Amino acid sequence: xxxxxxxxxxxxxxxxxxxxxxxxxxxxxxxxxxxxxxxxxxxxxxxxxxxxxxxxxxxxxxxxxxxxxxxxxxxxxxxxxxxxxxxxxxxxxxxxxxxxxxxxxxxxxxxxxxxxxxxxxxxxxxxxxxxxxxxxxxxxxxxxxxxxxxxxxxxxxxxxxxxxxxxxxxxxxxxxxxxxxxxxxxxxxxxxxxxxxxxxxxxxxxxxxxxxxxxxxxxxxxxxxxxxxxxxxxxxxxxxxxxxxxxxxxxxxxxxxxxxxxxxxxxxxxxxxxxxxxxxxxxxxxxxxxxxxxxxxxxxxxxxxxxxxxxxxxxxxxxxxxxxxxxxxxxxxxxxxxxxxxxxxxxxxxxxxxxxxxxxxxxxxxxxxxxxxxx
Length: 375
Fold this sequence. Notes:
Blueprint: E1 4-10, H1 14-30, E2 35-42, H2 46-56, E3 60-62, H3 65-69, E4 76-79, H4 86-94, E5 98-101, H5 109-122, E6 126-128, H6 136-146, E7 153-161, H7 178-181, H8 186-189, H9 191-202, E8 205-213, E9 218-220, E10 227-229, E11 235-242, E12 247-253, E13 262-269, E14 272-277, E15 283-288, E16 299-302, H10 310-313, H11 323-339, H12 349-368, E17 372-373
Parallel strand pairs: 1-2, 1-4, 2-3, 4-5, 5-6, 7-12
Antiparallel strand pairs: 7-13, 8-11, 8-17, 9-10, 11-12, 13-14, 14-15, 15-16
C-alpha cells in the first residue's frame, strides 16, 4: 500500500468541516508514517462543492457524490451528509473504499446490518462516528474502570441533552421525519451517542425499559408556514441492565432549555465515583473512598500530557483539548486500522449495529410498557 491515503468527504457542513480539519492535521499531530490527503469533496451542487473545496483545502470537488465514491484515486470515503446514509455507504464499499460514516449509521437496524455485512464481505475498514469517547478524559475514565480503581461498578447514569429544538416555532426538518431520520428522534440522534458511550465504558446492555415523549407536537414548514406533525420523540428516558450486572439510566433530549452540549455521565463503584461533562471536556471529577477522611470529597482532575492522546496535541497540562481534536483522534484510529496497526478498531459497524439494537429495544419497550431485551 502507498504511504498516501487519499480521502474523499461527502458533505461540507459541521461534520464535513470537522473531518477536513482532522485530515489536514492528523499526520502532524501524531507523527504518522501514512500521509493523509484531503483530495475530493462532494456537496449537493458543483458550485457549492467548488466553494467548499477552496474553503476547506480539497484538491478536487464534485456536485455528485456518486462520482466521489467511484473515483479510482480515492482510498477512504467519509460520509458527513444527513441521513439516509445507506446508498452512499454501500456504493463506497462496492468500489473498495474504506469508510467512516457519521452517526447514526442508518435509519433502521436492517440497513445497519446490511452495511456491516457489505463491509465485512469486501474486507474494508468501516468506522462509525462516535467521537466523544475519543476525548482524553473519557479514555482515562475507561482506564480507571478497567483497572479497578473504582472497585466493582454498581451504577451508571448517562445524559445527553441539548436545546437546538427548544423553540417550538423552529421549522420542521429531516430530523423530525420518520422517512428520513427513522422512528427514533432524540433517541436515535442524541441517544446513539449516549448508548455508544455506555457501551465503550461498561460493555453491552441486556435489556431496557423506556419512555419517549414529543414535547412540541407540531412545527411550521419552512416553505409554507403550515404547521405539521412532528413524527418522532423530543426526549427519551431509559432504564438499563448491563450484561456485567451494572444497572443504570440514560436520558436524552433535544429540547432541554439551556443545554448546549450536555453529554455527561456518572460511574459509581464500591471504591469510588467519577463524573464527566462534555461541556468541561478536559477534566474529570473523581472521588476515592481510600482518601484521607480529612480531605474526603470529589477532586477536580485536569487532563494533561499524562492522559491518553492529550500530549500529542499539547505538551502543557491544563490547556485543554477541543471537539475537533476528538475527530482527529478518530481519523488517527481509522488510519491505524487501514494500515494494520490497530485491527481492534472501535467503533466499527458492528458497534453501530449494537446501538441500533438498543434503540430497537427501547422502542419496543415504549410500545409494550415492559422491559425489552436487546437482541
